[in-house]
Amino acid sequence: MPAFRQVGEKQLPNPVLCMAWSPKRDLIALANTAGELLLHRLASFQRVWSLPPTERTGKEITALAWRPDGKTLAFSLGDTKQIVLCGVEKAEILHVFPVQSAVTCMHWMEVVDESSSLSSFYSSEDESKLFLPKIPTLPKSDFFFFFPCRLNVLVLGGDSGFVELYAYGMYKIAAVDGVTGTCRNLCLSSDLRSLSVIAEVRSADNNPEICYIQLDTGLLSDCLPEVTRMALKFTFISTLLQYLHLSLTCMCEAWEDILMQMDLRLTKFVQEKNTSTQVQDEFLELLLWGQSSPELQALLMNQLTVKGLKKLGQSIESSYSSIQKLVISHLQSGSEALLYHLSEVRGMSLWRQKFEPLGLDSAAIEGAITAVGSFSLKANELLQVIDKSMKNFKAFFRWLYVAMLRMCDEHVPPELNKMTQKDIAFVADFLSEHFSELFDRKGKYFNVERVGQYLKDEDEDLMSPPNTKGNQWLKFLEESTHLKESPLLFPSYPQKSLHFVKRMMEGVIQHCLQKPAEVIGKSVKQAAFVPLYTVPERWNDKKAKMHNVVFCMPEVSPSKFYLLRKETHSNRWDCWELRYVYSCLDARFYDDDILTVVLQACEEQSGWRGLAQLPLSSSLSCGTDFSWQLDQQSSTIPCQTLFPGTQWRELENMKAQFVAVNGIRKVACVLSSNVRHIRVFEMDVEDEEDEGLESLNASADQDGLETSGPRRGPAEENPETDGESKGDRGGALQKTEEHLESEEALKVP
C-alpha cells in the first residue's frame, strides 16, 4: 500500500519557475514563464486566482516567499528589479519597492523571542490612535495601511553578493556586505543571530563553485527590542510616504487639461491679433464700457463660445473642489501622521545608549521633520491658491458670461444682471493680475490658471508664484534677526511646486531611513566560508536554534547526502554522511526531523522515480566536529544508512524532478523535469485504494489530462513515455525491497 495520498494532478500550459506552499493554509503559489503568479488550493489543485504581469511591475518572476502569517505573498521581478507584496485574499498589489540587483532567492521568517519586554510591546496598543485622526482611504486605490504585528524579516539575495533584510517586508534594516558570488539560497535564524547563505562563486580557473557562507548578525539579536521598535516606526513612515505619493497622484488626475483652454486661447489670440493693445486692456474696456474689439469678439464668440465658457466654468469648479478635498483630507492628515512618527523616532534617537549603535542620528531625523513641515506649508499654500482661484474664476466667468450673452443679443437672467461696484473692482483686479503677458524663450504666454503649476513634477520654478507683498508675518521675519534662522520655523520654498517639495522631503527621509541599514549592515561579519559542491536545500531549526545544510555530490557519489549542522550561538559544526540506495534529484526539509526527497534509480536504463520521507532523528545521534576538508576527512565522517520504511511512493508516468513541501500543513507538490506536470500529495495519509486499482486510475487520469490539457510543445515530454514499462518499474521496486531487507538483516544482532 503506497504512502501519501495523491489529491491533485495537472498539466500546466506554461512552465513553472517557482513554487511555494503557504505556511498557514492549504495554498500553493506558482510563478510561470509567462510572468503570471498563480494561487492554487490543495483540493483538486483548484486555481484560486491568477495575477497577470503588468507594465508597472514586470513579467520575469525570479523568487517567491510567504509572510509567516500566510496573508501576504512576496515575489521578485528580474526585468524591473522590483519586489512586490501581494495580498492573498484579493490578489491586490499592496506595496512595490525597487532593489539594486536582480533577486535570485528570498526567505521570510518571523522572529521568535520569549522576552517579557517584547511580549508587552506586542500586546500594547498603538498610541498614535489616541492623538491622530483616522487617515481616510484613497479613492480607487488598493493601498493598505500597515498594522503592527510580530517582527518578521524578508531576506533578499541576488547577484554580485547582494543581500538585504527588510523588516515587515517593507523597511530595509540591513544592507549586508561581504558576500561574494550569486546567492542560491539563504536563511535567517529565528533568533536573528545568524544568516546562512548558499552562494555560487567563480574559482581562480573561472569554474562555478557552490559555497556555504555563515554571517554573524549578532547586533540584531543583541538589540532585538530596539530593532523591533525602530523597524515598526520606520515601516509606518514608509507606508505614509507611499500614501502621500498616491494622494498627490490622485490630485494630478483630478486636474484636467480642459483647465488650460483659457491660457491656450489667449496665447493664440495674442499671436494672431494685429493691434498693439494688450489683452488685459481689451478685457478692461469690455468690463468698463461694454465694448470690445472685433478680434476679442471673434475670440469669445467663435473660439470660446457661450456653451464652452459654461462648460469650462463647471470643470474648473469641479476639479478645484476635488483637489481641495484631497489636500485637506489626505495630504494634511498624512503629513500630520508622518510628523508624529518622525518626532517619536527623534525621541528614540536621543536615547543614545540604546539606539545610537543602530545608526539613529538625531540630526538627520530633525532634517526629516523640517522637510515634512515644509511640505505641509506648501500644501497649505496650495489650499490658499485654490480658494482664491475659485472665487476669482467664479466672479470672472459670471461677468464674461453676461457680456457674451449681450454680444449675442440674448436674454440675460435677472439674477446675473446685477453687478455692484465692488464686483467690478474685484474682476478688474483679477484681470490686471492674471491677464498680464509673460515671456519665456518660446515667446509670449499666459498663466491665468494657477493651480496646475503646483502639480507639475518639474524642477523649474513656478511660473506665477504667490504674491507675498503686504504679508505682515513675512515682513516680521525679515526684520527679526533671531527668528530668521531659527530651527523652529520651517522653510516655505515659495518659488517651488508641491511636487518638488514632496520629492525633496522623500529624499531627506530616505537618507534618514538608510543610515541604520548601512550601520547594521557593516556590523554583519562573516563567521564561516565553506566550499561545497551542489546544495539543493538549507533549513533553520527554530526549536534548537540550529542551521542545517544538506547537499550532495552527484558526480562523485550520487547516493550519498552530507548534512552539516551548527548552532547559531556556537562555533561547533557537526557533519554526517547519509547513504541511500537511490540518487537524489531534489530534497526539502519537511520538518526538523524528516527530509523529503525525490529519488531516481541508480541504474541509467531504469526510469524509476519516487517520493520518500527520510527520518533523520535516529541517524543523527552521533556527530563529529568537522573542519570542512571533505576529501581528507571522508573516512572520519559518521556514515548512516537511511531507511524510509513505509514512507515512500513510486511516481508512475512522471519524470519527477523537483518538490516543494509544507510540514505544517502536511502536503507536498512534485514537479516534473519539463516543469509543467504537477502532482499534489497529502503526506501523513495512506492511500486506502488497492495498488492495482490506483495504478489503473492514474493511467485513466493521465489519459484525461492528455485529452483536456494544452497542446504539448516540442520540449515537453509525453506522459506515456515519461516512465518505463511496468515490468521495469516492478524490477526496480523488487531490487529496492531486496536491498532494504539485506540491510535490515545486517542490523539484527
From TrEMBL:
Domain Anaphase-promoting complex subunit 4 long: 212-409
Coiled-coil spans in chain: none
Family matches, as InterPro entries: APC4 (IPR024789), Apc4-like_WD40_dom (IPR024977), APC4_C (IPR056358), APC4_long_dom (IPR024790), APC4_metazoa (IPR017169), WD40/YVTN_repeat-like_dom_sf (IPR015943)
Domain named Anaphase-promoting complex subunit 4-like WD40: residues: 19-110
Keywords on record: Cell cycle, Cell division, Mitosis, Ubl conjugation pathway
Any one GO cellular component localisation term in the record: anaphase-promoting complex
Residue span(s) of domain Anaphase-promoting complex subunit 4 C-terminal half WD40: 538-682
Basic and acidic residues bias spans: 723-749
Record region (Disordered): 689-749
Transmembrane segments: none
Biological processes annotated in GO: anaphase-promoting complex-dependent catabolic process; cell division; regulation of mitotic metaphase/anaphase transition
Pfam families per the UniProt record, alphabetical: ANAPC4, ANAPC4_WD40, WD40_APC4_C-half
The protein, known as: Anaphase-promoting complex subunit 4
Lineage of the species this protein comes from: Eukaryota, Metazoa, Chordata, Craniata, Vertebrata
